[in-house]
Amino acid sequence: MRVSYTQLDTYKQCPRKFKFYIDRAPQDFSRTTALRFGTAVHKALEFAYAKRYQAPPVERVIAYYRKIMDEETDPDVRELFIRGIPALERYIAANDPRKLRVLAVEQKFVVPLTDAHEMVGVIDRLDMLPDGSFEIIDYKSGKIPDARKLSENWQIAIYQFVKQQQLQTKRIQVSLVYILYDGHKLTYRFGRDELGRIREAILRQVAEMERDTTFPTHVTSWCATCPYQPICPAWSHQRAAREVVTGKEREEELVDIQARVDRLLEIMAQQKRLAEEAAALKQALAQYAKGRNLTRLFSDLGTVSLSFRRRAAYDVVQLVEVLREDLLRKIVKTVDIKKLERALPYLKPEERERIEHFRREEERASVVARPRMDEDTEALLTP
């Protein structure tokens, strides 16, 4: 089985999107603006850096880029393309192809991942630096991310792993270059343990991808630009719902279903408001009962039972800030108080001591309402 970073990333975003991708499902190209812009930028930069000793002047690169732009009719895409012109000019001027040792552009690779799996992909550019080490360049046409997350970036980890295998050297770094932001560069070099950890994570995901038979939908912010949204089970009803609301769709079943959807959401909204009101009432009753040493309150409608107990609590925000990453990993990915309490006996004394520093006692009230739903009570509740 051949696996690419695009497949891995797509599956992480949404298993159903991955299924559409491998099945070559029809795409809504009006939703691929950023992708088309990114492709054009990559083509222009490939043209600029493909021949070190015969590098075209920047004017020819921009003319080549404009030729790609002229094929676009979408005004949103053209607006992005126009932003790309000065960005490309600045980047090429600051990174003269004739002064760099560019070893390869758009270099395809196939390397074994396991006996049954191969990793495939394309590296935008490979340079040799003055000290004899290597730099992998990956062009980006989007926004600059948090640099602190580079160590978790599977894409650049894959590129470094591949080149270490092919060149038989560890003197390799990977740089993400953000063209629209004056070629801002984020550079990282993975250690052996980091590469091993990411490789194991990739193998776990590949196994999950092979086992998956349902490919569930994941509704996230990625949906806004997904080219498969019109055929996605999580979104395809949206258009029908709009047509029912505007009166364009009058098919009886759709109209009936839309009415049921609306009613359910109304009920759920009412339940949320009632739950918030109930929580406020419980708090008020708990304060009253606590002050008068009561454990039950009475009404013609039923009873309210109350209990009070002290339990351990932690300042979770500060706890997360001070605990080492490896210690957090021993407990849970996020601090769950019950799991933390169960984990304490297995931690080192110094680790327990650090956690205990944030421990405090707090009182919790339990308020349980027991309505008496007989005929008399129903009469009282009925308006």
Descriptive key words:
alpha+beta; PDDEXK_AddAB-type; 3-stranded antiparallel β-sheet; 9 strands; Lambda Exonuclease, Chain A
What does this structure look like?
By secondary structure, the chain is an alpha+beta fold. The chain folds into 3 domains: 2-211, Lambda Exonuclease, Chain A, CATH 3.90.320.10; 236-277; 285-381, no CATH class. Helix content is 49%, strand content 20%. The protein is built from 14 helices and 9 strands. The strands form 2 sheets. Strands 1, 2, 3, 4, 5 and 6 form a 6-stranded mixed beta sheet that branches. Strands 7-8-9 form a 3-stranded antiparallel beta sheet, covered by helices on one side. The longest helix is centred in the last third of the chain and has 40 residues, at 252-291. It is extended and about 95 Å long. The model has no long low-confidence stretch (mean pLDDT 88).
Q: What's the gyration radius in Å? A: 30 Å
What CATH architecture of the largest domain do you see? Alpha-Beta Complex
Largest sheet: 6 strands, mixed
Fraction of residues in H or I helices: 40-55%
Q: Structural class of the secondary elements?
A: alpha+beta
**What average pLDDT do the residues reach?**
88
Find the count of extended strands (DSSP E, 2+ residues).
9
Low-pLDDT windows of residues: none
CATH topology of the largest domain: Lambda Exonuclease, Chain A
**H/E order of the elements?**
EHHHHHEEEHEEHHHEEHHHHEH
Sheet-strand content, in percent, reads 15-25%
Number of helices: 14
Shape call: extended
The span between the termini is 67 Å
**Total count of domains:** 3
Class of the largest domain, according to the CATH hierarchy? Alpha Beta
